[in-house]
Specification:
The complex is a heterodimer of chains A (161) and B (740). With 161 residues, chain A is mainly beta. Chain A has one domain. By secondary structure, chain B is α/β, with parallel strands linked by helices. Chain B folds into 5 domains: 134 residues, no CATH class; 121 residues, no CATH class; 144 residues, Rossmann fold; 106 residues, Translation factors (Elongation Factor Tu (Ef-tu), domain 3); 132 residues, Rossmann fold. In chain B, the strands form 4 sheets. Chain B has an 8-stranded antiparallel sheet, covered by helices on one side. Chain B has a 6-stranded antiparallel sheet with strand order 17-16-19-14-15-18, with helices on one face. Chain B has a 5-stranded parallel sheet with strand order 10-9-11-12-13, sandwiched between helices. In chain B, helix 1 runs antiparallel to helix 4, helix 4 packs across helix 5 and helix 6 packs across helix 9. Chain B is elongated, with a radius of gyration of 36 Å. The chains are: A mainly beta (161), B alpha/beta (740). At the A-B interface, helix 1 of A face loops of B.
């Protein structure tokens, strides 16, 4: 079975967040999430960044356009509630079962190897919500190493440029 | 635009698309039924804490317990990379088998809600739902109009099979279809982001470690107090996240519970919008109520029936639309003819008038009454207006009267002459024509001729009016109208029961003739081809060879009886009666059905008084024959001689014994001590008749005009002490005559 790669490129460099450490240099990071063939409708995914204390930093990508269903991405929906720009320029279509999501973002150097985590919440209609489906520490050692999610994500890889 | 036009065009457009939604919806209705069948019902009084305890013993790695709408308990677990969803038995926590949200492929649901076209499709599906709601409303208006109001809603439906199907199915499922469309719109409104359902941001909560192990579910006070029947969903705290909490969802809202202390950290109530949505979901999908899902599934499948019958009805109406030949353009015509017709027959008279006027060199424009206007070229205007039912305007011309009332005839008014068509059987004979006449005169339009009334499409009366018109116009004019005979069916004589006439006129024989009709294919029945359905009291039109004019006989049987029966008496020199009485068994004749809506018996338990003389007993015999519900029917029969013209005599005696007929009074005018005429029997029974009428009795009279007038006179006398009259009973649809 072919698995066409769904590629979405987000330029998130413009997102200068107040919570970010001083932006000296930034690096591009490419996230690739390959979904399992879970046999349901397209999955809603929210990829976001949390700091060493588990506090929300910024949203990297939200797949799925209906606000009605965001409550099913419950961790992200709760943590990012205070961020009025959480959807600015980082939304796209939901991701079908067996397909892959590939997004890129610019991250400040200071975020790497500093206890930050990439998290993804996932949900699909009539199926179980999977808040924090996957949590992947943002370290140079993890770059390029695929990791499996709990229910929907077969493997998540991030690649630091 | 009229309701009819709205219904027709919405039906042909949105209705066609609704077919997709209806059929896919019918399939989706299987799900709740299948789920209910599969799921063991939850023990409603069980506490959630106990349920959690049981489940935790049998299922490792539980993350969530859901009380699904079908009533079953589904446990979501995650163990060694394996996500599982299983039904469990709440009584002991035993795993019963895997759970799946639907037994149908995903695309069926997506076809139903978005036509497989994503968001654009969702808007499309919502538009179809709106169209369906409008179709239901316009359908209800048309249904009420057709049946004559709420009280007649359950009455017998007439017309071709397609029309009957459309109306019969309509009055059963209309309300459900409307509900389905409205709930679909409610659900679309939230999906399309027009209404927000959630109660805002979820609260920031975390379990606070206090140096002791997390409490087991059995010790959480809130879960102890919560019954499984009120639970929607319970999320377990994540094993690897010490700060995670229990999350409980019920119909009322959500709560978060600290895993160490067991305290409720926060609650969030459902919004009003969410509650409405929840109701809409149940009503639309039937989940949690499988019998309702069965109803919804059947109604969904009915959309196909509606669409098919609707298209056939539309096609039929197109075929039967009036075709006027030789029409001049409105602006050039010196004679204008405006027509108001319910069944279409008045258009035939208009065509005859138009042809006759054109022969004299006039340029004539014929149009429907709602287009009433005059131009600089017009010199004469004729309005041919049929009255529908009890004094109403035909549907297409319903607004015409009000429109004309606003029209000013101007400085040089053109004469407008009204010709009314109607049926004397109805209390408001030619009432619409009269209303038009009055309005036109009030507005100041002159008339060439005063209002004339035509009874039952009489060609003779029309020809007489033509004579008057010729005189008024000062030009030769002959109105020779040959009514268009509806398509006939060949019916076959299968039995005859002869009655010798009175001794002084040996020629006056009579017979009860019983016919069979040819079998019809479904296609023919749908399009209303072949013999129409009929009931006792309806009329059969017989077209004798060598004549274009049908004669009508009252039917003594209904379609359900399986035969067509009439009672025919030899008329002196009668073309049709001679033809019918001369038929041998196996011979055929040309026939068609004409309904007699005012005369049929309504479905009621009230007593029925039947008065018939001579062959006029035929439709009454038909009523009694079909009186399976044993409604108290009382027959007054008038004949001449019991030995010669007591038609249906043996049958009537049998029905009396079977209780189909409650009482029988006979009078025979030509025998000594015979009791005189039937109206004499009515006068003798005055006290009893007053009692029956006071009970709400319905009266049906059939016989000659003279007999019917005599009966009405006698009954007026009988009813006078009750301050009631035949006219009042007629107005309430309790009294009807079938005269010949």
């Amino acid at each position: 079975m072919s698995k066409p790669l769904l590629t979405i490129v987000a330029t998130a460099a413009a997102l200068a967040m107040s919570t970010l450490p001083t932006v000296a240099h930034s690096r591009q990071v490419t996230l690739t999430a390959q979904l399992k063939n879970y046999g349901g409708d397209g999955a809603y995914l929210a990829a976001y960044l949390t700091d060493a204390k588990g506090a929300y930093v910024r949203t990297l990508w939200v797949a799925g356009g209906k606000a009605k269903y965001y409550t099913h991405l419950s961790d992200w929906n709760r943590l990012s509630a205070g961020d009025s720009k959480r959807l600015a320029g980082v939304t796209g279509a939901s991701v079908g079962a067996g397909r892959a999501l590939k997004v890129t973002a610019d991250l400040a150097d200071a975020l790497i190897d500093a206890g930050y985590e990439i998290r993804i919440d996932a949900a699909a209609e009539d199926m179980r919500d999977s808040p924090s489906e996957i949590r992947l520490p943002l370290s140079s050692a993890n770059s390029g190493k695929p990791q499996a999610g709990k229910q929907y994500i077969q493997s998540l890889t991030f690649q630091l440029q | 635009m009229s309701w009819k036009a709205i219904h027709r065009w919405l039906g042909l457009t949105a209705g066609t698309l609704a077919l997709v939604l209806g059929l896919s919806g019918a399939f989706l209705a299987f799900d709740p039924v299948q789920q209910a069948w599969q799921a063991p019902a939850a023990a409603g009084d069980l506490s959630v804490a106990t349920l959690v305890e049981r489940v935790a013993r049998t299922v490792p790695g539980v993350q969530e317990i859901r009380h699904v709408p079908s009533g079953g308990i589904v446990v979501f677990s995650f163990l060694e990379d394996q996500a599982k969803a299983s039904y469990v038995n709440p009584a002991d926590g035993r795993v019963l088998g895997p759970w799946q949200p639907s037994a149908l492929p995903r695309w069926v649901k997506n076809l139903h809600r978005s036509l497989l076209l994503g968001d654009a499709g969702r808007w499309g599906a919502a538009s179809i739902a709106l169209g369906m709601a409008l179709l239901s409303v316009s359908g209800l208006v048309l249904l009420l109009r057709r049946m004559g109001g709420w009280r007649q809603l359950a009455a017998r439906v007439r017309g071709s099979l397609a029309q009957r199907l459309h109306v019969l199915v309509g009055r059963v499922v209309l309300a459900v279809l409307f509900l389905t469309s409205i709930t679909a719109l409610t659900m679309s409104a939230s999906t399309l982001g027009l209404v927000a359902l959630d109660a805002g941001t979820e609260p920031e909560v975390a379990s606070v470690a206090i140096g002791q192990a997390a409490l087991p579910a059995a010790q959480l006070v809130m879960l102890q107090g919560l019954r499984v029947q009120d639970l929607r969903r319970l999320n377990f705290p994540d094993a690897t996240d010490p700060q995670d909490t229990w999350q409980v969802a019920t119909i009322q809202g959500k709560s978060w519970i600290d895993r160490y202390s067991g305290h409720t950290l926060a609650t969030q109530g459902s919004t009003e919008a969410q509650r409405i949505y929840d109701w809409a979901l149940v009503l639309h999908t039937g989940e949690s109520a499988w019998p309702w899902a069965v109803v919804l599934g059947l109604v969904g499948a009915c959309v196909l029936l509606f669409w098919l019958s609707g298209v056939v009805i539309w096609w039929q109406a197109r075929q039967q639309a009036p075709h006027i030949t030789g029409n001049s353009p409105l602006a050039q015509a010196d004679v204008l003819i405006f027509v108001a017709s319910e069944g279409g027959s008045t258009w035939g008279f208009a065509q005859t008038l138009q042809d006759a006027l054109r022969k004299n060199g006039h340029r004539v424009h014929t149009s429907a009454l709602e287009n009433f206007q005059t131009t600089a070229a017009s010199r004469q205007v004729f309005v041919l207006a049929a009255t529908y039912g009890d004094g109403q305007a035909p549907a297409h011309a319903s607004g015409a009267l009000a429109q004309i009332a606003k029209l000013s005839p101007g400085a040089a008014p053109v004469p407008v002459t009204v010709l009314g068509f109607g049926d004397r059987q109805f209390g408001a004979y030619c009432a619409f024509g009269e209303a038009l006449e009055q309005t036109l005169r009030t507005q100041g339009w002159p008339a060439l001729l005063p209002l004339e009334r035509i009874h039952q499409q009489s060609s003779q009366q029309f020809a007489r009016w033509g004579g008057a018109l010729a005189q008024a116009l000062g030009e030769p004019l002959v109105l020779d109208h040959v009514p268009r005979v509806p398509p006939t069916t060949a019916i076959t004589l299968v039995s005859r029961q002869e009655f010798a006439g009175p001794p002084e006129s040996a020629a006056q024989v009579a017979a009860i003739l019983r016919f069979s009709w040819p079998a019809q294919s479904l296609g023919e029945r749908l399009r209303g081809l072949g013999l129409a359905h009929f009931a006792a009291g309806d009329l059969v039109g017989i077209v004798p060879p060598g004549s274009a004019v049908p004669r009508y006989y009252s039917l003594a049987s209904g379609w359900e009886d399986g035969f067509l029966e009439i009672c025919v008496r030899q008329m002196p020199g009668g073309l049709c009666s001679t033809h019918l009485l001369g038929l041998q068994l196996g011979n055929r004749c040309a026939a068609f059905i004409r309904s007699n809506p005012g005369f049929e018996l309504p479905r009621t338990r009230r007593p029925v008084v039947l008065v018939g003389a001579g062959t006029g007993v035929a439709p009454l015999a038909g009523f009694i024959r079909r009186n399976d519900r044993r409604i108290p029917m009382h027959l007054y029969f008038g004949g001449r001689d019991p030995a010669r013209d007591f038609y249906f005599g043996p049958e009537i005696q049998r029905w009396l014994g079977e209780g189909r007929l409650a009482t029988l009074q006979t009078t025979f005018s030509r025998v000594p001590e015979g009791g005189g005429y039937v109206q004499d029997a009515l006068r003798r029974d005055a006290e009893r008749l007053r009692g029956l009428v006071a009970q709400g009795a319905i009266l049906r009279v059939c016989g000659s005009r003279a007999m019917a007038d005599g009966v009405a006179e006698a009954l007026d006398d009988v009813l006078a002490p009750l301050r009631l009259s035949v006219r009042q009973l007629k107005a309430k649809d309790r009294y009807a005559e079938d005269v010949f």
